[in-house]
Amino acid sequence: MIALLQQLTQFLPKDSVLLTDEAVRPYECDGLSAYRERPAAVVLPNTLDEVQQVLKFCYQHKIPVVARGAGTGLSGGALPHKAGVLLSLAKFKRILAIDPKSRTARVETGVRNLAISQAVAPFGLYYAPDPSSQVACTIGGNVAENSGGVHCLKYGLTVHNILEVKMFTMAGELLTIGSAAYDSAGYDLLALITGSEGLLGVVVEVTVRLLPKPEQAQVLMAAFDDVIKAGSAVAEIIAQGIIPAGLEMMDNAAIRAAEDFVKAGYPVEAATILLCELDGNAEEVEHQIGQVNQILRQAGATEIRQAVDEQQRLQFWAGRKAAFPAVGRISPDYYCMDGTIPRKHLATVLGRIAELSQQYGLVVANVFHAGDGNLHPLILFDANKAGQLEKAEALGGEILELCVAVGGTITGEHGVGMEKINQMCVQFNSLELTQFHALKKAFDPDGLLNPDKAIPTLHRCAEFGKLHVHHGELPFPELERF
Amino acid sequence: MIALLQQLTQFLPKDSVLLTDEAVRPYECDGLSAYRERPAAVVLPNTLDEVQQVLKFCYQHKIPVVARGAGTGLSGGALPHKAGVLLSLAKFKRILAIDPKSRTARVETGVRNLAISQAVAPFGLYYAPDPSSQVACTIGGNVAENSGGVHCLKYGLTVHNILEVKMFTMAGELLTIGSAAYDSAGYDLLALITGSEGLLGVVVEVTVRLLPKPEQAQVLMAAFDDVIKAGSAVAEIIAQGIIPAGLEMMDNAAIRAAEDFVKAGYPVEAATILLCELDGNAEEVEHQIGQVNQILRQAGATEIRQAVDEQQRLQFWAGRKAAFPAVGRISPDYYCMDGTIPRKHLATVLGRIAELSQQYGLVVANVFHAGDGNLHPLILFDANKAGQLEKAEALGGEILELCVAVGGTITGEHGVGMEKINQMCVQFNSLELTQFHALKKAFDPDGLLNPDKAIPTLHRCAEFGKLHVHHGELPFPELERF
């Protein structure tokens, strides 16, 4: 194997091929450190030509390939294959073109999410999807995971903000997918590739849509003594046709952790807080702030505060954005879940999570994108205490199955990767999984790209043995069907 | 063959199977009457179970199947196969569920587009995509073609307004695709199926998103003596971050035809008119009307009129919506094209179309969704004059190739069908077409669903013999590259 992999230096500079155990160690996991694996080799190509040669070589010799951006993923999607090549795209950092008139930018796959917005800022533009990891994560990784962020309620996920990608197939063929126009002929491969977690191809270039920076942004923070009241406020905001730029919810455990960490000014006694950001032109924002204020009051908010200036607005958000590390400070370990549910089941699902938390004896802090029903329950545990990791994983699995049961899905924006592959058996039936495998074969007949991730084999599902509960065949009779 | 097809009556009521030449004739074409073909049989199943049995039967006997909604398509996508079964879904007309709280409706595939908005109107909601054929066209057909309409600039195409579909594969297996939640795990089959022109499966149920009706809508009509000025007004409206609910452009030939037909109140001397609709709450609309007014004035509009009341607003739109039949009144025949280009090339492309019109000696009237660059050039001709049909087709082909050359695509919302299958060879290279065929095989290995449509064989492209001009390898040096 090593002798074979050493042949990679025939078309890559020597220092772009890492083969020693020591050299490949930094690549052994992504942001989800619970899973670790060392690849047989890491390659760091410098040109598209080198990427193509690596792929052709691996295709010919049937060597698995896992592509990697910044490695900030949270589901083990970039976990290396021990008999495979880890293909790092870190060197593809150039912004190739900015077209302020068409409001697009064409960038290489390794460009960081935030770097796009920084580069186009002089034109008054920005790139809307803003995952929490946006300082570090790359646009190629964003495409692989169909990343969202606080603003995706109003501005959409990655799939809604890209126009065209250039992608290598496993055989090393370069495809151009999508177009600069509003729609494209042929099958919609752009949406298919987006969120496919590196199983269908290696994206090397992305043309993104840019948006003009809104004239104004304003945020309201509301406290509630009851999560159901907060949930109904969310429903009413949306029902009135208001689309906030961000609509986030945190429960008491998350509020306390965040306040303790960054002093965001949150009321630590509140059961729940809602953060609602509105953006647009000044009149529009002022009008909507008035509407939202009234809705929050009517829903029974115990306190409503409007950021008095830009500094306070950023402070309100700082607490939310630091919620994960803040929870990390109060617990030796935490397990961040990522399920999405139809908004109307928020209160029911939160109630059930509280029950499960008691049952497992593990604290769960809830932080989530309330506007689009994307939950991030953080399960607190201590991996050094025997059995706690397994308990946390089991509790996490139950939460994901609960999301499916109310008509939701096991992932909002973090992807399936390794982490949630068993829960895919709950979400999809064997016909649907078979269709996924057929589709994978159409791009990668030998199954070499990112093997064993995202789509479970039927064999694995049979072993996992959980019932398929697709779309609301509810195991919990108390939940109303969607 | 007939003996075999008669077996269909084993699982369908007798009057749901049409076999005589006379009985199948009404199904020989869709809205594009230039292509006609009679199917071997027409079936009109009444239940999903019957649809499944028809598909299983045809799959077993390798009989081609073409699904059909209302038959209003404009690219021959529902053209029958002469040795195949035409599967009419006309009887699936039930609205299955309306959920005003989640703002969704679940409907059968044969429900008419407008019937959805009518059914949900009592809840203050509507379904946004509004193709011109919305009175007649079905939601299943909308999914097959990824239909747009006047409002898609602001509210998106069909793919942006549906959440879940139930679909039979050619083998008769029922898949549920998508979910009621914001995102879904697994490959994004929902986007893949949408716009796949009936080649991947037969959609039988659709869950659509609904939107609250805007508080107010207002329209401005502006006249220009020069199409370049109108084009720059469009660019400036978008550049200022205004997203009109509709932004439509008509040239002099289209203005005269429409005015003559419906007396919309258009200035018949104008080179071009722009219709710009703004919707939202009253303050927002008023503010934006002011902004747009200023932009239009600065761009050199010779006349700007704001609809004084709802009746005049509808009258302004009546002219635009009747443009196709209006042109039909002044010419024995017309050929409606549907290409999409990056907005910034509007003026250049219109100039080139004018040259081509002169060169071919055929009048072209231009009507289009200016906001999203979706052109509908109408080529006027007389099929009774020898050679004119061929001339019109050749001119149409050149216009589509022009769209590809500037970085656009050969279809905005009408689909490829039979009509534009040769131009697919211009838009995609052989690698990309091969990928499309592999993907088709993953759903329909025997190629029985809607054969010979939408995706050309490599053999066909070799015969067509036109150069692939993907993404801006320009045959016209005077056009700037995207």
TrEMBL record, chains A, B:
Source organism superkingdom: Bacteria
Entries under Pfam families matching the protein: FAD-oxidase_C, FAD_binding_4
Oxidoreductase found in the keyword field: yes
Sorted UniProt keywords: FAD, Flavoprotein, Oxidoreductase
Listed PROSITE patterns: FAD_PCMH
Cofactor(s) required for function per UniProt: FAD
Domain FAD-binding PCMH-type: 35-213
InterPro entries in alphabetical order: FAD-bd_oxidored_4_C, FAD-bd_PCMH, FAD-bd_PCMH-like_sf, FAD-bd_PCMH_sub1, FAD-bd_PCMH_sub2, FAD-linked_Oxase-like_C, FAD-linked_OxidoTrans_Type4, Oxid_FAD_bind_N
GO MF annotation: an example: FAD binding
UniProt protein name: FAD-binding protein
Species annotation: Beggiatoa leptomitoformis
